[in-house]
Design goal:
Rossmann fold, 40% helix, 18% strand, globular
Length: 280
Amino acid sequence: MNALPAWRDLPSTLDGVALSHRTRAGAAPVLMVHGIGPGTTGRANFGPLLEQAPGLYALYLIDLAGFGASGRLIAQPYFDPGFWVRQIELALDQVLESHGQPPVLIGNSVGAALALKVAARRSELRRVLAIGAPAGGPAPTALKDFWRAPKDAASLARAMRPMTGPALTPAAAMIEARLAPFLQGDYGDYFDAMLDDPDLCLSQVALTAAEAGAIRAKVTVLNGRLDRACPADDLIARLLPLIPDADVTLLGGCGHNVIAERTAEVLSTVERLVAENKPK
């Protein structure tokens, strides 16, 4: 088996905030946007996909401001969809500069909601994959518990269990990696300030009718039937009526962590979208 191409950094700054944007060489561009949660990063969300995606894909992976290797926002609101949308657009411009064609844009959870907002602003996008997208409305208990700075490994494990369909206890290595940012400095305070009002946060990322009307890309939606953070019922009632032409797949027995729980289905969907995204 041939070794996959190495990752390289793309130096990026927005409004004075240093951002972690990385890429892996390939022919067909794919841009990935992670969700919002304790210890979340691009690699943490998309790890299974990164490991199995073929080397022919040119992968672009970002850490949203306030997460991973990216810097923090310096003033409230730390939960700032407008900033994150502009960050994704910056990454989109980096893809266009390198490849001369738009990527398949993949968003996970809140990242999926942000991806849809970007699609409303950028008509050159042709294919968007929204995985476990929040649709607005009151935040479920599982999400409120997850959107809280963990005090220790046990509390983080409790918050993460409902994220999978069978409510499995995460592996110790995953807990350790996601807990690490909270064991240094004041990141826990920053995180709690960012997500102080989960209902408001969800309302801010929810797709509006005006935005939906501006989307020209073909939208594909994957959602777990047992998603307790962004329930399928909310998706069906709130989001899908706004994008009636979207292709929608509800995955039985699957929770919010679709990429890890149903990696094969995600990979096959990405493969199809990459093929459809080729320049005519």
